[in-house]
Predict the 3D structure of the following.
Amino acid sequence: MSHSEPSHREYPAAREKTFFGHPRGLAVLFGTEMWERFSFYGLQGILLVFLTANVMQNGLGLEDTVAVPIASLYSGAVYLTSLPGGWIADRVLGARRAVLIGGIVIMCGHISMAIPVSGAGLVFFGLFLIVIGSGLLKPNISVMVGRLYDGDSDARRDAGFSVFYMGINLGGFLGILITPYLAGEDRWHLGFGAAAIGMAIGLLWYVRGWSRLTGTGVGPSRPLGDAERGKVVRIVVISLVVAAVAIAIWAATGTLTLSTVPTVVTILSIAAAVWYFIYIFGEAKDVTPAEKAGLRAYVGLFIASVVFWMLYLQMGSILTAFASNSVDLDSWSFHLPAGGVQNFNTIFILIFSPIFGILWLKAGAGFGTAYKFALGVGLTGLSWVFLGYLQGRADSGILVALGWMVVVYLLLTWGELCVSPVGLSVTTQLAPTALKGQLMGVWFLGPAVGTPLGGQAFAFLVPRYGEQAFFFILAGIAILTAVVLAIFSGGLHRLMGQGGHGPEANLETPPEPELGRGE
């Protein structure tokens, strides 16, 4: 019997390497992220409507110009904490434990929101917990996906991220489908509870599949030394004290309001992004010249991503407000909740994700990352041009038929598939070996900066110029960005090629092994 054991063990090991042709660990991360996205998008489907619903409907009764920046801030702030979350995984916890702890904190946040008490205290505390937990989970689960493909082809990595991305949107579809109907018009805490259950299922799936992740994400890639640990503790303590004093002074001046908080956090997001790029180019250790060349290209892609997210991630805020105020939600012989309109996006993602994955495989090196980004940002801009046209019809007193929103979300989805999964993939490729978690945190700073910027633009432009002008102005910014990026795509690809990551990377072998990623 002892002679049969080796072959018996080899057989399952071979089988575990296939999940739609990808490493078996992808199934674990696919399911975990799917249920986390169920909780996130389920909440996003009802948050703005809850903020604007009147007190008789158990809502907070806020004006659109106050509620939209808050909802946009929430959508962006869950990405802002990805930078420290990536650092904590790289230096302290390791990616695998960071994902577990982050999921637990997110679940506690949803539970806080689900407690049926009057007032907004537990709701905003719950949002705070979700933001903190997402910072640990989001960047590090994506890093783990990338590490499943260490040493593999870029095209297969892109295809793997497209499969992972389909899981994200399957969870989003279920969340938006179920949560708004549970919440109804006044049962908000029931909807918040559904989000908590979704995150709990994701945690169970993750723990159950722990062993299938093999060595992926175990331990920090650059553990803190004893001297560094003491320094970090001092910095954290000082930072917390300074923040507490600043908030106390802010509150004492009477300017700490629901309108000013989004503005301040938006400014902090921009400062964080600028600071980190300065840090990684000027201070980071063990970054080779080739890796720095790839990072210079990444700056251009990052700026384009900020513009993309500024428009795209308004689905839970500006586009939900548009659906609530200007769209005939009963035009298909049944009532669709305003937040439920977002599911056009998730339906199209489920349809087109595998198609785009195949397209990227077929295109190969001939259609590089920068061209994909330019196409995606341009398509997103066109969707907002169409929104501006529809807003003009609504301003004339004509309710927009629900079918027109299909066109808006189709264009948004195509833009998303050109930018988001490709951006996740190129981030794991261009990240210096010892800074993968932190650079993934930088990728998530794109939506952290862009999303609240869109909310701030809404609060500033709409009262002055109207909603139609607002849509056209942001559409113009996106289309101009796409044109500029397309013009400079060749140069960006050459920089990426120096580090072994761009379309040109396959044309020649790097002269020295240390010029690559060190994988």
Notes: The first strand starts at residue 327 and ends at 328. The two ends are 40 Å apart (CA to CA).
